Amino acid sequence: MKKTLSLCLALILYVGVSAQTHRILFKTNYGSFKVVLYDYMPKHRDLFLDAIKTDVYRDALFNRVIENFVVQGGEHDVDIAKREAAHPELGKPRLAGEFDPRAYHKVGAFGAGRDDNPEKASFLNQLYFIVGKTVSNEELDALEKKKGIKYSSEARNTYLKIGGQPRLDNDYTVFGEVYEGLSVLMEISRVKTNKEDYPLKAIEFTMEEIN
Questions:
Q1: Tens digits of residue pLDDT in 22-53
Q2: Please, are residues 164 and 107 in contact by the beta-carbon 8 Å criterion?
Q3: What angle is formed at CA 148 by the lines to CA 154 and CA 166, rounded to 5 degrees?
Q4: What is the sign of the dihedral through the CA atoms of 162, 187, 31 and 47?
Q5: Tens of pLDDT along 180-202?
Q6: Which domains can be identified in the chain, with CATH numbers?
Q7: Which ranges in 54-90 belong to alpha helices (H)?
Q8: In DSSP terms, which residues pair with 25 in a beta bridge?
Q9: Which of 80, 186, 205, 211 has minimal Cβ neighbours within 10 Å of its Cβ?
């Protein structure tokens, strides 16, 4: 049963991957995993590729980990808020959100973090991965009504089979997904944390573009 579920998950995560241009290798002290970036989210894709080239994520950590929800890394919300408060003359640089029905918060989704700004604009140096939870038809029906969206049959089936965090859809930008090594990310999601969701042991990561 477990083997069948793993195969199903691998097939779902592979859908559409081969059509995309850019792939990224994440290396952590728990192992490595691979991410594909969506070409139909060009602004976030290009910002992230430039960040890799310019070492924006040098010495980066996964610094917010919540089991069944998210693994987040880069500059922390608290640090961003402190930096921006200390230098109001620099403003609050953000990237306008990008939304597409093909990009949603299934398990393995790769997105850009943000604060509660009304424009839903993303931070320039914070990323997250969805590790998610089970999702029901009733939950998806309720979210369609609340958010005024319509899930495709593919999205609905994916949520029902592997789970995710659909309540984040159309509020946070998803611009890629894990297509290999998801078990590494799931292991990271289960590490021990303090009450602020910081891992008790530092989880470092590096990134590089691969073919």
A1: 999 999 999 999 999 999 999 999 999 999 99
A2: yes
A3: 50
A4: positive
A5: 999 999 999 999 999 999 999 99
A6: 2-210 (2.40.100.10)
A7: 77-86
A8: 34, 208
A9: 211
